Amino acid sequence: MNTLLNTALDLARTGLPVLPLRAGKVPFGNCPDCSRNACGGRPHMKTPGPCNCPRPCHGWAAATTDPDVITSPPWARAWERAEAVAYHPGDAGLTVVDLDTPDAMEWAHTTLPPTRTVVTTRGEHWIYQGAMRSANGVLPGVDLKSSMQYARWRGHGTGTAVLLPDAVRALADKPTMVRPVPSNVVPAPAGGGCRHRSPAYLERGITMAEQRITTACSEVHTTVYRTFLAVLSTHGRCGCLTDGHVTRLFSAAQAKGESPRHCADAWANARTALGM
Fold it and tell me: Which pLDDT belongs to residue 49?
């Protein structure tokens, strides 16, 4: 049996709702029947609860502890293509404090009570008992993953999970930290002026890009990157794209759950792909 599937079944038996992740640590896209939420399930993921589709659709909402679902043919095909196991912390009564930088880990060690700790690629996951609202970028390098969010399974870690402290709950009530957008504007060609027909052309393009991100119901990471790539390929070399426009795109992505770091990385990767 697939190793990831075995892991998923073991976790499900402990009460941890699981789902498969494909390359890039993202859930599988919605099936054709659920595309654009045609099935009526979890529009924009505003309500908690499992998806009614028998396939691993709708991101975190697909997470389940039912072994019959996990081993069903649609899920079995997904596990064959999966690269990792994820779980829905909130549905298990847990909150994951995701620490991605040395400064973030130092903050946790000096501010938060010790709890179960799992080493990650970039830093650590501190896992507490108690569910709460998820929030990204609450502090530089700190994301909170609980209700309506998924976290990658990276092992049991060390220590014992303790009750969620008020200091963590309070972070979700503060305005999300927005990373300052670096100047990404390419100087206008010699002689000045924009090659576009009118300012309305640019405004329409930015508005459409915001809408594309806002209406994404699955594969948000991919949608954000491709949208950034499209905007830069059309508007990035003429000198008319301002930091204000970039901030609008970052804000739309963060409203869909992307962290400021992920936005900056996606923007930088798009610029690199275009040789900018």
Answer: 55
